[in-house]
Automatic annotation (TrEMBL):
Lineage of source species: Bacteria, Bacillati, Bacillota, Bacilli, Bacillales
Name of this chain's protein: Inhibitor of sigma-G Gin
């Protein structure tokens, strides 16, 4: 079962609910994000002044 929920507000990718599993996230304000944009959004809010070119995420 695959139900269309909406589009990522940042990249516009379609987000579906599959068997109760959403392939994205819903923000507190109700906006939809895919996982990729959601991660970037968290990165931007956590370290706004630093620009990391590393693809690896190794927070300690
Ligand atoms: Zn996205």
């Amino acid at each position: 079962m695959k139900e269309y929920v909406g589009a990522c507000v940042r990249c516009g990718v379609k987000i579906y609910c599959m068997d109760g599993f959403l392939n994205g996230t819903v923000a507190e304000n109700g906006e939809l994000y895919c996982f990729e944009c959601h991660d970037k959004r968290l990165e931007n809010t956590e370290k706004s002044s630093r620009s990391s070119e590393d693809s690896e995420v190794n927070n300690s």
